[in-house]
Amino acid sequence: MHKDMGKNRLFLLTILLFGLGWDSASAQDTLEVSSNQNGWVQYHTKTDSNAHVFTLYGDGTFGQQYDPGHKFPPQAGGYITESYFVKAYDTNLPPPKRVFTGSVGSGSSQSNPVIKMSGQADLYSSWATAYGYENFFIIAFSNTDSSSAVNGCIELYYNSNEISPDTSDILVYNSWVKNRNLILDSVGSFNRKLSWEFTGLDKDEVRYVYVPATVLIRPGKSLSLRTTYKVNCTGSGSSQNSSFLSRRFPHDPNFKIVNRSCLKPHMPEESLEYTIGFFNDGNDFAHHVFLMDTLPPLLDPNSFALLDYEFQPNWNLIGHKLQLDFMGIFLPGTHQTIPEMYSYEDAFSYVKFKICTQPFLPNQTTILNTAAITFDTQPAFITAPAVVSTWDECTEFFPCNTGLRGSSQPFFSPMEPAILISPNPISEKLLLTIDFHAEVAPVFELNLLDFSGKVLENWKQTAPQGGLYQRHFSLPELPAGMYIMQLKSAQGLYHQKFVKL
Question: Does residue 8 sit in helix, strand or coil?
Fold first, then answer.
């Protein structure tokens, strides 16, 4: 996503994923019409606080508010609206909750709080793609250039080994498109293309096509799609390559996954790629996000390399303790209504890194670890374990790239101190580790600050021989909240944030 997974909005076609399924949902998930007046229909939802709500209105548009409202075109027969309540870490996809609006009149001056197009095309996702589950890929397109209505084509490119569309169940509302065509030959780097024609697309009008498709790639890997908008079905049009990370469950908001399911035993070092994903399901922006990952001894920390991210983190790695700080990320929450409602992809971010195993691991050796994810002053989320094991039957072997070693440095000068607080968050005690990387001036200061910058404690310390300093601090009387450990030394002024539970 760092380059093409949902944050770059220019000339994209909206592909929005939401799950289908028929397992029973919680009885407390309800959708009802609370008012229907002058064409404006207001709904009320009741749901578990961990559920993510996606609403498909009966006229083919969609929104993600918890108590949505919608201005329908007048229709005496009314509309059927569906809401999907997706639970965090739930392996079951819910059935839609349906409600009938009754007859819809005209005269409303309300505006629709649905996701708005910001150009000819955009890319959103209601929640995560998941291996083995069917999702609707929703293509949205808009005429933002011509003051008069235009005709043209919409195209979806994909690979048949990554998704399997159900072409018999594609949903099209209001005669938005026609003359669907499926091309099975290779088109560039893709081997499939679905295309449709459209006519009479008015200025600023938005239309949608819903394509159900099952994800075929395993967790930890990405599927690729391309969408193209062509006026008059000529020329190259406006295209964008997009990718979606496959996960374990349809709504897996905070996770750590690995791109391999097995390793060959008794072999030299092998390369692994880990992805840590984090999701703000709250009512406001997350200003800062902190990740702590204790790498198991079966991995070689000297081979660590940062591969991809949406928001550049500060990070350091001392021993097997990896810490990544996303300071000032301002990650929006899906429950926000001000300044606007945000989609799943808006509220999600991730970081990906590569690391090598230790050499010659025995058969049936399991490498297992989790990550701790902290949003501002909230309690840490501990992810489900990322698991990969050695098996004689494993046919894959990806040797560790020796050029990887030393190729990725923390985002501070190698001569600046690296500060690590463990654990983070803390309950009463913390271990502070400072690697000065060299001999330093014999005396330095540590200040404990609250989040406003007020100094709570001060310690004068003596730097050890070799430049590696460690000290345990006991802080049982410290109230819960976010704090800053400040280092003053001859090398400068440095900070490390931590959370007290």
Answer: coil
Could you tell me if 262 and 328 lie in one domain? yes
Percent helix / strand / coil, the chain, rounded to 5: 0, 50, 50
- The residues pairing with 321 across neighbouring beta strands, listed in sequence order, are 294, 318
Whether the link from the prior residue into 313 is cis, omega within 30° of 0, is no
110, with CB counted inside 10 A (0-12, 13-18, 19+), is: middle
pLDDT, tens digit (0-9, with 9 covering 90-100), for 475-492: 988 888 778 888 887 766
Cα–Cα dist 1/245, whole Å: 8
Name the band, by pLDDT with cuts 50, 70 and 90, for residue 106: confident
Enter the pTM of the model.
0.65
- Name the token pair of 157: 């490119």
Distance CA 61, CA 331 (A): 25
What letter would DSSP give residue 7?
Answer: S
211 and 270 inside one domain? no
| Tens-digit pLDDT profile for residues 434-491 | 877 665 556 788 989 876 567 888 998 877 776 778 889 999 888 887 788 888 877 6
Write out the residue range of the structural domain in which residue 44 sits: 20-100
Same domain? 386 vs 270 = yes
Q: What are phi and psi of 168, to 5 degrees?
A: -80, -10
**pLDDT at residue 14 in the model:** 32
How many domains does the structure of the chain reveal? 4
With CA atoms as reference, report the closest residue to 240 among 220, 219, 257, 226.
226
DSSP state of 226: E
- 217, 133 Cβ separation under 8 angstroms: no
| Contact of 155 with 187, CB cutoff 8 Å | no
CATH value at residue 54: 2.60.40.10
Do 494 and 467 fall into the same domain? yes
